[in-house]
Design brief:
By secondary structure, the chain is mainly beta. Helix content is 9%, strand content 38%.
Amino acid sequence: MQKTFAALLLVLAVAACSGGGQIPAPSNAVAPAAVAVDSLAAASVAQDDTFAATSPCGTARIYVADYAKNDIEIYKQGVANPSPCGKISTGIDAPEGIYVDGKGTLYVANFLSSQITEYAHGKHTPTLTITTATPAYDVFVGKGGVVYAAEPDVDAVAEYAANTITPLRTLSINGGVYGVATDRKNNLYVSYLSNADSLSHVEKFAPNATTGTTLALSLPFSGEVKIDSANDVILGNRNNNDTLNVFPPGATVPSRTFSTAGNPVNFALNKTESTIYVSGLGLVQALDYATGAGITNISTGLTSPSGVALFPPAPY
């Protein structure tokens, strides 16, 4: 009787530990924590990360799109020179701009597949896939969950109502669109390379408007555009010493200019707007948003970083 009971306990213990099979280790593991999270993500497309404070990534996170690796690397905020604590790869194809909204939903502009994939809070597989008319370079989400997609090949911005895959409207722009963002009043800002003078400009659209107003500022060639809580316009300048520029409302010259590691096309502010994360050549820099001073760099696990986003997001 004792032998039978012991055997039963052994069977139950083996079953509980097996988990349905051995989980393979990822080829690009960089730390024990990354091995555990990445292995689970690879083994199960239904993995649910609950964003619990006890998880390796914590609750405040940095998401970095890697164009060459076809994935989104996840890092914990507040860590110097962090290593990845997780990743998302399902549905990712040459990602460019990315965005995370206040609910934790991740939006990815997949350039080569002409798709925008959405990942609900903590999910590693798409909950919605939008097929865009042409490759989307940037993505942003405004009030009411409206998704804005920058489509440079057709000089347009496509708008999608929340949880839909058919455009609500399409805005025609006089040049290739590389950045989209909204401010706190839900005005839309569009960064584009003008067909008229081959310079980058920003056009501002009131909510639901189809005709915009061009702001009196320009740069040789910018990428994304972001708006902070003071309505400053933030633009990178990859053709002039690789700078990041902050333009106050109505200004034609920047009030602050930060040097970067190069090619500052994509960037994102943290929730308190104290730190700006700038995606550059081989790394992401965390800079003090007031002074431009370097705080830390993110490079481990990255090959060709493109879009960067944070959770919780900035208040714009």
